[in-house]
Amino acid sequence: MVVIHTDGGCRPNPGPGGWGAVLRMRQHVREMCGGDPGSTSNNRMELTAPIMALEALTRPVVVHLYTDSTYVRNGITKWVLGWERNGWLTAAKQPVKNVDLWQRLQAACAQHDVEWFWVKGHAGVPDNELADELATRGMQEAIDAPMR
């Protein structure tokens, strides 16, 4: 089993953003982060973190995935099948925001047996705090990266 903690955010929102993930399997730990120096959103970064973590896994495994985003947890466990059934429209018949990331997250989840958990952010959960630090690092690295 792999235990994953993820976080994402922006300053300001919308604005530059970052995501972070901590993956643990037995004694192995992998820290991941990245960011977007442009105008992104908290929700896009919160979605990107579990996508990148799940896509980094090299074989199908059982995953316990912890997020402090109710948007991500509710979206993937409660709302996404209805959105898909409705042609990616909300109950109010509006286009689902971040549909590209929801579809990518669905595909990443399909490769594994994922159980989702919500954890209160900034509440002293060590790997959630680390994921938050990684998200901040990812954002800063994206901002500081030279333009190509």
UniProtKB/TrEMBL annotation:
Q: What class of enzyme is it?
A: hydrolase
Per the UniProt entry, what are the Gene Ontology biological process annotations, in alphabetical order?
DNA replication, removal of RNA primer
Spell out the InterPro entries in the cross-references: RNase_H, RNaseH-like_sf, RNaseH_domain, RNaseH_sf, RNaseHI
Cofactor-binding details, from the entry: Binds 1 Mg(2+) ion per subunit. May bind a second metal ion at a regulatory site, or after substrate binding.
- Name the chemical reaction catalysed here: Endonucleolytic cleavage to 5'-phosphomonoester
Q: Which residues bind Mg(2+) 2?
A: 7, 132
Q: Which residues form the RNase H type-1 domain?
A: 1-140
Q: Which residues bind Mg(2+) 1?
A: 7, 46, 68
* A Gene Ontology term for the protein's cellular component: cytoplasm
Q: PANTHER family recorded for this chain? A: RIBONUCLEASE H1
Q: Tell me the function of this protein.
A: Endonuclease that specifically degrades the RNA of RNA-DNA hybrids.
Q: What is this protein called?
A: Ribonuclease H
Gene encoding this polypeptide?
rnhA
